[in-house]
Amino acid sequence: MQRPSYGQSPPLHHPVPQHVSTVPQLRSPPPPTSQPHSQGYDGSPYQQQQPRVASGGGNMFGQYGNMMNDPAAQLASQFGQTAFKQGQEYLEQNVSRFISVSSLKHYFNVTNFYVINKLYLVLFPWRHKPWSRKQAVGPNGQEGWYLPPRDDINSPDMYIPVMSFVTYIFLQTLIAGLRGNFQPELFGYIATTALVVVIVEILGLKLGCYLLSISNESQLLDLVAYSGYKFVGVIVTISVAEIANGGNGTGGWIGWTVFFYTFLANSLFLMRSLKYVLLPENNSDNRAPMQTMQTESRAKRNQRTQFLFFYSYVVQLFFMWILSRP
């Protein structure tokens, strides 16, 4: 069977696009010229997005920034300030019953030059002269009050005793830590021991002053200051002994040598410095006979000198030995 023949087929035509499109060339846009170069411009040609400011009058904290404008918050703030002021006044009134705040400030009026020279005097008091304290001249030309520590090397201060007390506590706990025996309870134990030593010493001094009829206006604060200077010698003893003995405590001939040196230095320092406190000028009754006044004054002075020697050497030896133990 023969296939029928058909006419010639028309040629194929491909579709031709009617709208010619060209691919744009990508170019970096020029830097913005409308805005000047600011401090925050980092060289990027694209405009940085500005941070959005929260509503509430431009406050960056939003609704929390208006808390101080709340009447309740203002009332609470005023109440807190009033309570703090009343508490401060109450504390000053109650503390002033026992210790004068102005007198206490006198003992902390020190300088770096005074601290260095005072430490040198406590450790090397052998050739120091004079030991008498300086007094300011009053309006009437007479000697008035004692000069502060910054103006008188012989004046007692509270700065060195307090710093030495705190340093002693940290030094003892540091040595215990280096030996592997550190415990948090050591801070309380060492601080309590040192504080008990100071309190017992002050009570003994006050009792002796009472029995010997010794009175002084600034006696208590002076005695507290002088009782704290022993910590300087104790710190030196512990430090040198630990370094020399390789961490074996204050034993050995080096430790005992340093201990006796610091003990003698502290004793001489107290013996010379406490003369104006424990051996004041005796203002006896002028109506008594001159011979009787001289006899009583000589007897009282001998008793006070013995008491001063006992405190400066015997008492200091016992307490410094307790504090120097590991």
Secondary structure layout plus pairing:
Layout: H1 71-98, H2 101-106, H3 112-123, E1 135-137, E2 143-146, H4 159-178, H5 185-211, H6 219-227, H7 230-244, H8 252-273, H9 275-278, H10 290-324
Antiparallel strand pairs: 1-2
Helix pairs in contact: 4-5, 4-7, 5-6, 5-10, 7-8, 7-10, 8-10
Polypeptide structure, described:
The protein has 326 residues and is mostly helical. Helices cover 55% and strands 2% of the residues. The protein has 10 helices and 2 strands; from the N terminus they run αααββααααααα. It has a two-stranded antiparallel sheet. α4 (159-178) runs antiparallel to α5 (185-211), α4 (159-178) packs parallel to α7 and α5 packs antiparallel against α10. The protein is elongated, with a radius of gyration of 42 Å. Mean pLDDT is 77; it is low at 36-41, 53-58 and 283-288.
Helix-strand makeup class = mainly alpha
Mean pLDDT: 77
Pick out the low-confidence regions. Answer: 36-41, 53-58, 283-288
Q: What's the gyration radius in Å?
A: 42 Å
How much of the polypeptide forms β-strand, as a percent range? under 5%
Helix-strand string: HHHEEHHHHHHH
Biggest β-sheet description: 2 strands, antiparallel
Total count of helical runs of at least 4 residues: 10
Tell how many strands the DSSP assignment holds: 2
Helix content: 40-55%
How far do the termini sit from each other? 129 Å
Overall geometry:
elongated
Widest sheet, order of strands: 1-2
